Amino acid sequence: MLDAKRFLIALKNMGIDEYVFAEKEGPTLSGLKKAVMNCERCGLAKTRKNVVFGEGSPKAAIVFVGEAPGEEEDNQGRPFVGRAGKLLDQLIERIGLTRNDIFICNVLKCRPPGNRDPEPDEAAACKEYLLAQLDIIRPRIICTLGRHAYNTLLETDAPITRIRGKLTTFRGIPLLPTYHPSYLLRSQGRIKEAWEDMDKLKTML
Ligand code: SF4
User: Fold this and answer.
1) pTM for the structure as a whole
2) What is the mean pLDDT of residues 155-184?
C-alpha cells in the first residue's frame, strides 16, 4: 500500500523542496520525475549527460528494475535502449505485454562512468527514488534484472546464479529475480532460464 507519509519524508530528507504533489492524486510519477531530473545527491551528477528516470505505465502490473543506465541510455535519457533493450522487449513480449504495459527503471538514475558497477554510496543515495517509484506504482510484481537490483532492494549480496528464478517478496510484493539482458547477450546459454522466468511471470499475472 502507498505510504505517502514515508515517501514525502524521504523526499524532504533528500532536500527536495520543489516536489510536485497533485492535490487529488497524491504523489505522482511525473512529480517525482521533476524532482529527480535535477538531482545532485551523488557524484554521478557531474558525469551524466541525462538522468534516466525510467518509463512506462504508471499503473504497471510489473516493474522491471535494472542496474544503471549505459552509454546509449545516458545519451538518450531512456532506459534499456540498444541491444540489451531489444532483448528486454523480447522478454516482455514473452509475457504477452509491451513496454506500454509495464514500467522499466534502474537502481541508479545516472550512468556510472565506463559502465562500472554502482558504488554503495551511489546506490544508497538513489535507492529512495526507486522506493518512491514502487510506492507510487504499487505493482503486482517486481522483476529485478541482474544481481545489483536484487541486492539493493533486499539488502543482501547474493550471486545471480543462486537467486535467479527464486520467487521472494519485497514489502509484500512478489519479486522474481532474473538475469540482466546485457548478461544474457554475453551468456546466451542462460537465455532458456530467462524465458522460463517470463513464463512464470505470465502465470503470476
Ligand atoms: S545517480 Fe541518483 S542520487 Fe546520484 S545524482 Fe543521479 S539521480 Fe541523484
Assistant:
1) 0.91
2) 96
